[in-house]
Amino acid sequence: MKAYALRNKIIGRRGTSNAAWEAFKAFAMDAKNGLPSSGRKLLKSAKGDKDGDKTRERFHHLLLDSLKKDRETEVKEDLAAAALQREQAANDSDKDLGHLIAPKAVIVQVVIVDPDDTTNVMPNGGYYWATAKVRQFVALKKIIVAKVLNGISNRIPERRYIRAMYGALTKPPADGTDPEDIERITSDDDLSNFIMLAKRVYAPVIIQA
Question: What are phi and psi of 73, to 5 degrees?
């Protein structure tokens, strides 16, 4: 739900169109990706008042509280990362800090697919995620593409190379099919932005290479 709000720049009822708010509300009330059961139960507690003022007010405050906590967490993490960057910059003579230094190592799971292996290929032409045969956990202290590639280098056959990387913004389904939201990762900025968003939605964060 928070990822949906961030992608659609929803920070509250004010300033959000009726259509966008109704779409957000429908998304949040879906048990698969929205509010926890306690939140949905609260909204439905007033019988005959599903679309009334009281229910709208409850929903509004539940969402604002959730998004407020998410923004506070993001600010705290950004401040911690900035402080660590300053500290390491003072002690690092060559100033080569990489794109972003995580306060703690971020664990990602990299799904490695071989396009020539037909068992990796889905009927629609994509490649399976959760059911792929080759997977590698990588601890990223510096959130840069080179660290991901280094972490999986021993799983790549000779004379083969990584052609593309994709990040799953929602947890890949257990049957291996495509997640709902996929982003192509082509730079260090792409990688750090993707991890910052996805790690609040599920863990471990999954990348397909």
Answer: -65, -40
Instruction: Report the C-alpha gap between 133 and 136 in whole angstroms.
Output: 10
Architecture of domain 101-208: Roll (3.10)
Residues 134/155, Cβ–Cβ less than 8 Å:
yes
- Which tens digit of pLDDT belongs to each residue from 140-197? 988 999 999 999 999 888 888 898 999 999 998 888 888 888 999 999 999 999 999 9
Q: Quick check: 46 pLDDT over 50?
A: no
Q: Are strands 205-208 and 101-112 parallel, antiparallel or unpaired?
A: parallel
Instruction: Name the residue ranges covered by the structural domains of the chain.
Output: 2-72, 101-208
Label each residue of 42-98 as H, E or C.
HHCCCCCCCCCHHHHHHHHHHHHHHHHHHHHHHHHHHHHHHHHHHHHHHHCCCCCCC
Q: At 129, which amino acid appears?
A: W
Starting from the edge strand earliest in sequence, which strands make up the sheet with 165-168, in order?
A: 134-142, 101-112, 205-208, 165-168, 182-185
**Single-letter residue type at 53:** D
